[in-house]
Amino acid sequence: MATLEEKLIAPVADEETVPNNKTTVGVPGWLNQLIDMACAISVLGKSLVDELALVDVLEDKLKGETMHLQHGSLCFQTPNIMADEDYSVISNSKTVVVTAGVLQQEGESRLNLVQRNINVFKCIISQLVKYSPDSTIIEVSSPVDILTYVTRELSGLPKHHVIGSGCNNLNSARFCCHVAEKVGIHPRSCRGWIWGEHGNSSVSGWSGVHAVAVKLGRKVESTYDVIKLKGYTNRATGSSVTDLTESMLKNLSRIHPMSTMVKEMYGTENKVFLSLPCFLNAQGFTSVTNWKLKDDLRGRNLMGHPERPKIHL
Ligand SMILES: *[C@@H]1O[C@H](CO)[C@@H](O)[C@H](O)[C@H]1NC(C)=O
Ligand SMILES: *[C@@H]1O[C@H](CO)[C@@H](O)[C@H](O)[C@H]1NC(C)=O
Ligand SMILES: *[C@@H]1O[C@H](CO)[C@@H](O)[C@H](O)[C@H]1NC(C)=O
């Protein structure tokens, strides 16, 4: 009996398997589904990948969300949208976005939250590496710098295959938006960077801010406070993750502020993860920019919060 496909379609050549640009978004349980879906939609909207896989332990919710995405696939250029509780669905992904994380409970200390997240990550990361050993992991979960470190340590992946995002890439974009608004230009005509640990202790590099090729220096100090604002939308996080994914899949060698290991850079002796402007291409992140720190960064605490929790892996 001929199958329906055989009745309808006559093959003229053997189909070869071609290398895919598969991106996996999300990951299990505890995940922040708002961020998860924002990342998925944003990646789909840019037609960056030929396969998108979602993983979660919330089976019904996952099925519903995936069906919803599949029903919208007439409008997307991504033929395969898959989801499963089982990690095998992510096999051979080029990029994996990790949004998993437990939520802070009332009265819970940051240290305790981090430690609980580490316990979750112990299960997740080993599964990710098992099924996608050659992928680049983009860590989105909070606190992003610490969890990027944790991901690197648990995964054993090379340093250029584990990056932290969501925050400083996004903060820098927001920083440019504010500067651009003040100057009355489009944000794309402004370049500026936020450095250091994500959160209240992040540092703005004013000496490196350029708008329409004019160096701004400290003329726009009045907007300084704005970049410290907390609370970002899931949409912007999705766009930010998509931006990083695009640089990798299309081998663009663009510079993004990303969380990476800074040992032996900028006078840092410890094995910590912080955001620096990094080159991103098909190999993952390949180099960091070698800036001469000016007054605005020299002497500032690039190491982030002095009470960084001690964690146990
Ligand atoms: C996948 O990546 C290759 C380059 O590695 C590119 O030529 C191709 O267009 C990409 N496919 C999609 C769907 O983006
Ligand atoms: C960040 O700063 C705000 C305002 O100064 C403060 O309310 C908040 O507790 C700080 N958050 C952290 C994690 O230090
Ligand atoms: C990425 O681009 C660089 C040059 O910018 C090139 O050397 C490298 O081979 C490219 N890698 C891939 C996988 O296309």
TrEMBL record:
Reactions the enzyme catalyzes: (S)-lactate + NAD(+) = pyruvate + NADH + H(+)
Residues involved in NAD(+) binding: D56, N117
UniProt keyword list: Cytoplasm, NAD, Oxidoreductase
Oligomeric and partner information: Homotetramer. Interacts with PTEN upstream reading frame protein MP31; the interaction leads to inhibition of mitochondrial lactate dehydrogenase activity, preventing conversion of lactate to pyruvate in mitochondria.
Enzyme active site: H198 (proton acceptor)
Residue ranges of every copy of the Lactate/malate dehydrogenase N-terminal domain listed in the record: 35-164
GO cellular component, one term: cytoplasm
Swiss-Prot/TrEMBL GO biological process terms: lactate metabolic process
GO molecular function, one term: L-lactate dehydrogenase (NAD+) activity
Family to which the UniProt record says this protein belongs: Belongs to the LDH/MDH superfamily.
Entry function: Interconverts simultaneously and stereospecifically pyruvate and lactate with concomitant interconversion of NADH and NAD(+).
UniProt-listed PANTHER family: L-2-HYDROXYCARBOXYLATE DEHYDROGENASE (NAD(P)(+)), L-LACTATE DEHYDROGENASE B CHAIN
Superkingdom in the source lineage: Eukaryota
Protein name (database record): L-lactate dehydrogenase B chain
Subcellular location, record wording: Cytoplasm
Organism from which the protein derives: Panthera leo
Domain Lactate/malate dehydrogenase C-terminal: 169-213, 223-297
